[in-house]
Each structure stands twice: as C-alpha cells, then as structure tokens.
Write a structure and sequence with these properties.
2 copies of one chain form a homodimer. Helix content of chain A is 42%, strand content 18%. Chain A is α/β, with parallel strands linked by helices and 367 residues long. In chain A, helix 9 (223-236) links the parallel strand 12 and strand 13. In chain A, helix 1 packs parallel to helix 14 (326-352) and helix 10 runs parallel beside helix 14.
Chain lengths: 367, 367
C-alpha cells in the first residue's frame, strides 16, 4: 500500500478501535459514517452543508455515474472532487451491488455480467476491469473491487459461486488497477454462512488489498444473523487495514459494528428517513408528520446543535414536511446526517477514553 | 402613518427613486425585489441562503397560511418571523388574489366572497375584516387590503365593479386594522383602463394608506398595455409613499417599472424558472437542460458571485437538473434570486449616481 494511505490505529477498546486513514485529499478519522451521494450529490445537501454535518468523506456510485453523466465526462471535468466541488476524500463503489440488485436483469456471461441499464433498459456488459476503469476515471480516493452480491436467502450453491467469483474478480480488479493515488478495497461475501465468510476472507486477503469491506449483509437477512456474521467476519480480517461495512447506517447497528472492530460505514438511511418525514433523536426516531408535533415549539432534538435544531421548531418543520416543501426535506436530511456522524464521532471519543462499552449501553434506543 | 414606517426618498432620477422604508424588523432599501415564500418558505432556500442572496424582505401568502398550518397556530408560535426563522421584514398579501384566481370558485356574497379551499375543496367565506385579522395573527411588517383582482380581458362592467368593491373593502380593511406595528397598504385595480385606474387611485388615496400597490396587472394582458398602465398609474400615486407592483419580477419589466417610480416587487419567477431548469444570466436566460452545457466547465453566469456560480460548473448543474436532483433546483433558485436582487440593487445605485437611464439601456436583454 502506498504511504499516502497509511492507516494508523490510535486506540483500541476491546475489538473497537479509533484510527486515522490518510488519503490524497486529507485524513479520515475512523470510525466514520460516509453519507451517500449516489449521483455525485448527497440528496438536498450542498458541499458546505455536508461540511457542517461533520462529514469528512462521502460515497458516490460508479454504476449511476457511468450512465449519467458518464465517467469520461467526469474525468474531462477534472474528476469527481472538482465536479461535485468536494475537496475532501471520496469513496466510489464499483457498481457490483447495483448491477445485481437493480431491476433483476443480471446474467453472468463469460468473464463479466450482462444487465439492463436502470436508465433506459439498454443492454450492457460489465467486467471487473471495466469497473476499475470507470472508477479510475471518476478519481475517488478509495475505490472498490467489482463483486457479486447475492440477495438474502440465496442458496448455498449460489453463495459459494459468488464467493469464488468475487475472489477471482478481486484478483482481476487488482491486476488492472493502476492509479497510485487510489486505495483499492477488496469485498468479502458469503451470506450468513461462517464457513463461506472464512473462505471469502482467505481468498480476498490472499490477493491482498489496502482495506477490506464486508458486503452482502444488511440486504434483508435476520438482524441477529447480520450481527453474528459481521462480528465473526470482522475478527478474521487483518487488524492493520481499514474495515468497511457496506450499506449499514442505523444507529444501533453501527454501534454493534464498531464493537466488532468495523471502521467505516455508508448508508442512504438518513436521507431516506428524512424523505419519509422521519428524524433521528437522542430519544429515538420520531415521525415529524405526526399531529402531535404541530404546536411543538421545541427543536427536533434538543441535544443536537445542527442548523435545523438551532433555528427551527418541530411545528415549522412539520408544516414544511406535510406541505411537501423541499426545505423540510433539506432540514431533516441535514439533521439526520449530522446525528449519525455525531454518534460515530462520540463512539470514537469513547474508544479513546476506554469507555466504549458504557457509551454503547447508554446510546439511543434501537431504530 | 406610524413613525416606525418612515419612507425617506434618498435620490431621484426622472421618475425613478431610491428610498428607505423603516419597519419594526429593520429598514428596507428600495427599489427592492421580494422573494415569494408562499407557505412561509422560499422554495428550496433556508433563511441563511436568503440572507446571502441579498434579500432583505420576503413575501408570504395569507391565503395559504390561513389553511396550512393556520394563522392561529402561527400566532401561537410567536408569529411568522419566529415561525420561519426570518428576523428581517415580511410582507403578507391578503389572499384576495388567491381567492379569485385559484380554482375559479369565488362568488361575491353580501359583504364578502365565498370560495372553495384549494386544499380540500371545502366551502369558505372571507371578508376584508377576516383578511386583516389573519394578517394580524401572522404578524408581518407590511400587510395588504383584501381586494378583488379581475382576470385579464375582464369586461368594463366587471372592472368597474371590482374597482368600487376594492375601494369599499379597502375602507373596511383600514377601519378594523389595529396593529400599530404593521403598515397597511391599499391596492389599486382597474385593468388596463386609464379612467378606471384613475378612479381606483382616487378612491384608495381618499381612504389613505401608508403605501399603495398596483394590482391586477401582469395577469396575462399585453406587455405594452401592462407597461403603459403601470406608468400611468404610478404617476398618479402619492410620491411620498412606497409603491408596490404586485407579481412582477422579470428583469426587463422591473427596470421599466423602476423607471416609472415603482419601489417594490414580488414574483415567483426565479423559483419557477429554476424549476424548469432555467437560469437568468448577464447574457440572457439560458436553459440548463440543453446538451450544449453538458461539458461546459464554466459557471452559470461568470459575472455572478453567488455560491452556485462560485463553486459549480454548468456541466455539474446540468447533470443535477437532468437527473432531477434537488441540489440542482436549489442552486438555480439561489442563483436566480441573487440575480434579480442584484439587478434591482444595481438599479438603485444607478439612480443614486443619476445614471439610471444608461443602466437600463445596458441591462440584460428582455426575458
């Protein structure tokens, strides 16, 4: 791994750890939550809003950007950082998850996968090499191998095939990756089967990456199976490399994952919850559409210091949300992203004080 | 008029004038453009965004707020300023325009008008006294008399009846208005008929108000008739009181109106243009959806200093707009509002330098 991607562990508390990951666009303190900017924008938030939430790295989707506006266009515009005016680190996913989950049109053919575009239904063929090429054009600091992510409940044969294919694709991804200013991460699959997870870890670590992601969880399986599998898998991964749990973002789930030694998270949850009028609070999740908030002149969360909570009442935000005013969606998204980032930041501080277990026990109720 | 609403003319240039209108929430420099916050929010903009556009007064709609969330609720929340977290001046319109223009259900009955709510179709009866009561509850700094606004092309009999009724309603509005911290403005009607406009001015001035609005224009009539009528009417209005042209906001139209001695404007145009992917620029209006912008790394308007123009390319904004991303709508709205406010501010400066005519001649092409 290049020196610019040094991963320094600052403190540990049980399996939980706080660390710093260096990237060409600055260092990231972990554990960290990465807001998702599918189409090179975190829904309703400008880069200065994002900065204010405490976000220090964001995620964008190679699949979506490949189709709109095109990775070549982004490259000609100077890369993703300049395109979206975000000068801090960016991670792109490879598109594997989208190819296999959107529209149910993926068919493995030869050395790649054929699928129909979500945008216009046209036929496309994608390979691990192409996924790396697209991500090199986009120019994120951290990029992901192209993987096969089976749905929850997939049979043992399917899961095993996906583990093997993901490992072969990982080796091919690594072989063609040439940008030295990008950290390439491998992805571990295997559903909720410990034996397959172990095999997937061994195969992926054998190829060797600057970081490892746990994929194929938080896709619909039982919560206890998710936590057990994550805990089991995290423990198998190299301790000296960042560990990333893809697609997890609920407060209680992230705390479990941090306890298991996970360093990075991403999830569309704060935006999606906001779209449904929901807000995370220190007392649990609330629905701002509820008539009970209509005359409430207090903030969404009295413990929060975000712009929404410092300046607006629940009564006003309920009015905006029920009238479908975009400002309501914006304020709730700003709050929810701030809430999750703040939670993970406080988890980090607790690890450094050796009090993560107490922090986890006193954390907000499960969502 | 209360001392707190002093209207001081600073400079004149022909009929154009620059002035300062004092209100309980601070002074407004005129000519001024007021962004429209129909439901107590200027679409996609937070109060801090608005502050940054240069907006110093915003408009909200009594009609909409009466139905959602209710004027009583806003009053219990401490009034409109606190509710929407905007500590500068606010103007509310009376709801007259909405009652007569939305849904075509208005019927004059006795001393008021019966109509169906746009929200749920329920039957309502509104009087001038109720419109004042609602606006007193909302608590804006400047409020409007309840008027009858006929559509463009209304016959002479209808126009005459509306002029008389609007004058009677103005007298009744004034008689019941009790809040000393609000400036009540009268509204002049009369379509494009100079004789009716003169009658309307005489009747309204006879009652006497702290400011006068020109209503019933920019509702679909020929542009030349609009400009002629506006110019004729503005000249009849008292020179020592603010003059407000309701519903006008296109750049060329505002400059004509300023030349005629108008001081205040409001319009949904910057938001509506943004919703259609349009942007005002120093070179004329452009449509950001056009494929010609897809690889353009320059700003929307190189002469603009707004956050959108300083940080994002046309290529990125086109991507956002074509992908229906809210950030695109937000950035275009921020830019368009800034553009109009900046135009009117520069008109004011030109008046003070005695060069308004040159400024008007060199202004952006008609839109």
């Amino acid at each position: 791994m290049q020196k610019s991607f040094a991963f320094d562990i600052i403190a540990t508390d049980g399996a939980a750890r706080s660390a710093v990951l260096a990237t060409p666009h600055g260092s990231i303190e972990t554990p960290c939550f990465m807001p998702v900017g599918t189409r090179a924008t975190i829904k309703t938030l400008s880069p200065r809003d994002l900065e204010e939430t405490g976000a220090r790295i964001v995620l964008a989707n190679a699949y979506h950007l490949h189709f709109r506006p095109g990775a070549g266009l982004v490259e000609r515009q100077g890369g993703l950082h300049r395109f979206m005016s975000w000068e801090r680190p960016i991670l792109t996913d490879s598109g594997g998850f989208q190819v296999f989950s959107l529209g149910d049109t993926a068919v493995i053919r030869g050395d790649g996968v054929q699928f129909r575009s979500l945008y216009d239904g046209s036929l496309h063929f994608f390979t691990p090499e192409m996924a790396i090429r697209v991500q090199e054009q986009l120019g994120a600091d951290i990029i992901m191998c192209f993987d096969e992510c089976p749905p929850a409940g997939a049979g043992a044969g399917y899961l095993k095939a996906a583990v093997d294919r993901t490992a072969r694709w990982a080796a091919r991804s690594r072989a063609v990756h040439s940008r030295r200013d990008q950290l390439l991460m491998g992805i571990v699959q295997g559903g909720t089967d410990p034996r397959l997870r172990r095999q997937s870890v061994e195969l992926t670590v054998e190829t060797g990456f600057g970081g490892y992601a746990i994929g194929g969880l938080s896709v619909g399986e039982e919560r206890s199976a998710m936590i057990d599998t994550m805990t089991y898998t995290a423990d198998l991964l190299p301790a000296d490399k960042p560990r990333y749990f893809m697609g997890l973002g609920d407060p209680a789930g992230m705390l479990e994952a941090i306890a298991a030694g996970i360093d990075m998270f991403d999830c569309v949850l704060p935006t999606r919850v906001a779209r449904n009028g929901g807000a995370f609070t220190s007392g649990g999740k609330i629905n701002m559409r509820n008539a009970g908030h209509s005359e409430d002149d207090g903030p969404v969360d009295p413990e929060c210091r975000c712009y929404a909570c410092l300046n607006f009442s629940r009564a006003y935000i309920r009015h905006l949300v029920t009238q479908k005013e975009i400002l309501g969606l914006h304020l709730l998204t700003l709050h929810n992203v701030t809430f999750l980032i703040d939670l993970v930041r406080r988890a980090r501080e607790a690890i450094e004080r050796g009090r993560f277990h107490e922090f986890k026990s006193s954390a907000p109720p499960a969502y």
